[in-house]
Amino acid sequence: MSDLNQTQSVEQILQELYPDMSPTMRADLLPLVLGNQQHVREISVAARPPVELEHREQVIAIGQGFDWLHQTNYALIINDVDPHLSESIGKAAGIIKDNLAAKRIPNTGAVLFVSVSYHESGHHRTGAIVRAQYLYRLALSAIQQNYPELNDTFHPLTTVMAWNTRLLELVR
């Protein structure tokens, strides 16, 4: 199918799916849909290693400051403002449990990594420490509630991070 025919076909589908959407908005959506189709075509023929196609996560990271931790299938990152935080932690623990059962990760355990950032020393840092400790307890509770058999699986790492310097400090 030529690019012109494909564009017209996608335009027609968008018109049928969203008849009440303004033509300007559909025109804005069109490049996104076409780009997504192109991306799907490219990755479907790419010889991607199997490791990229399956879950291999071994870290549950809760909080902020994890931009350096983004690696394919390595960590499940949950923002601490998630309105369903306990539920999200439970789902992440389920993924870790499945990874252990399928032997996709070493049976030495997984990491429960909590990090809260702060902007200024003093009471901001103290507040971040209190919040990090709270999030750690919440995570342990969510894991216990959903998967009590994982009690001894997670190695804790509770930290605070100075936002300006990105200095990560272990919280005891």
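The above is record 1. Record 2 follows with the same two-line structure.
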Amino acid sequence: MIGTLSSRLIGFVREVLIAHKFGASEEYDIFLVASIIPLVLVSAIFYAIPGVFVPQYLELKLNKSEKEANLYFSKFSSFYAAWFLFFTALICFFSPTILKYYYVTPNEQNFIQAVKILRITSFFILFGGVFSIFKSVLNANKIFLLPAFSPFFLNLSIIMFLFFFLDRYGTYAFVFGFCFGYFLQWLVVFIHSQIKKVKFSFVMDFKDVLIKKSVSALFVIAIINILGQLYTIIDRAFNSYLPEGAIASLNYANVLCQIPINILGVALGTAIFPSISELLSTNQMTKYENLIINSLKFIILIVIPLSFFIYMYSQDIITIVYKRGQFDNIAVTYSSQSLKYYSLGIFAFVCYPVLLNIFYSLRAYKYILFSGFIVIVFKLLTSFIWVREYYHMGLATATSISVIINVVLIYIILNNKYIKLNHSQILLTLFKVIIISLIITIFMKMFASGLNTLPVFYSLTIKLTVWMALYTGMLFLFKLDNPVKLLGANIE
């Protein structure tokens, strides 16, 4: 979490700089629409690789030898690097054809610019793909810190390119900064893996049984993660229904939501994944259940009050974070509206990667796939209905409700098909935290309105401090678990 937080902080600086340079502009909208397919594929690969690679690697390491495990790593890396290169070339070559299917614009120059951006960003797939493999092998060996810090280099590259090349190359400086950053973060984990004696050698073996077995599993997990990314693709496909800058505003709001999602959900899911895989392999089911319950209770205690706070003060948050340079009052309004409705689903967004890793440890891919298809159909239908009347707010609401439904479905499947969880612990914690958050929200609404006369930064800082103090006190009053102790139990 510390590593992820540090990387996210510089990512936060990156987004503030982008907002300053581009605001909610058509130029940035073009980049977001053109780059969505490479970014979705990279994200799908990033989450799919650990789900396939880590359990098999650990099984070989625990039951055979470290040498056998590292040989599998070399074969796996070589095989999939070749496929990533193939898909990069494919998208690069067919960029105009691909864009015709989802980017509708009467402006030919905008379309030409989008094609160029898609061709450059197609290299994200190659560099992001090999990065995910090397990050996975380090995590499988319980080496978490540097892999968690590695996005720092991606964000640093983007910031440097924006500072030194934006005036000369415009949006392309941003695109090349992204591309070089993906290469740089792979290079860092590659060097670190060699230092840690997780040796890689180029071994191409198409006949290896385990590699063949991994293909179908990876395909299914990639589809699962692409389904998760379809929320963003659907939103950007409705670009023609939205006012200029609305797509950018959804992205700015989503970036802020990704901070707790990555720091809590993704980091926690990544950290517990090797442990739950080992507990399953050794049939320690009581510990396995406790790890799941503690993880969900930890998320409830941290994320529910956070989502209430974001919903109440979304405009103040957007103003402090983004309002400067090209980011004007319209951009603040659009982005704060998007953030408010995204906040409804933050809890589900954070829970999802943790539950996903639990299903990956069980290798129960079909149920996640089934649930994913249901909610994407729901997201598509509700987006189509709501975008015409509520624009970006309708899209954000449709996303939040869809993710909530998805998490409820997979939790029910987990409990009914695989492991009986102690509902009373989880539901009681959820109920108490919602009640506490409602009490604090009403209190702040009644007694903190006078703070609005202060400058936004000071006003929001005081509100956050009071909120945290009240919440901490009520944790003791309602006899709830200490989140730090729960996290400690998970680390143990």
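The chain has a mean pLDDT of 82.
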